[in-house]
Write a structure and sequence with these properties.
Alpha-D-Glucose-1,6-Bisphosphate, Chain A, domain 4, globular, two-stranded antiparallel sheet, single chain, alpha+beta, six-stranded antiparallel sheet, 3 helices, disordered N terminus, 27% strand
Amino acid sequence: MGNKVNKYQHFTIPNTNVHVLAPVAELDFFDSQSIQLSMALSPLEAWNLMMSKPMPILSLAFRVRDVISTKFGVKKIGAFSGISRQTVEAGDKLDFFLVEHISQDVLTLSERDRHLDVLTCISTVGNELTITSSVQIHNNFGRAYMIPVAPAHKLIVRSFMRTLKKSLSSQ
């Protein structure tokens, strides 16, 4: 795996390996959650385990999102495929996310459109895994979109982390 960065600029939170869209004070949404795992994983290994069994309720939420959002010119994102990838490089896609950066301890994924930019960073330090999402909103639709998405996002990430812990405990 390389250490490529694509054309988009992102920032690193000081004293961490966490990538965000801008300094935290300039973000419209910021969420960072960490867990201790029973073993060290690469960010891509963690992604593969978390996405191995997509949540049915999340697939339904994405379908509803796509029906509403496409009326406002937002492209459909579908859902998480559950397909594991052994390698990725900057510029590849993981489901609807663009891989902006990949290294031994950081996987940075984005989805950007005219309404908002989203950057999700999966980072590891030893056995600790952190998922950080940052959003910059560009217009009123982006603001309205984030009203239900912000609280739901926190629950979804927490659920993915529980899935990951369960996956590791059953191995």
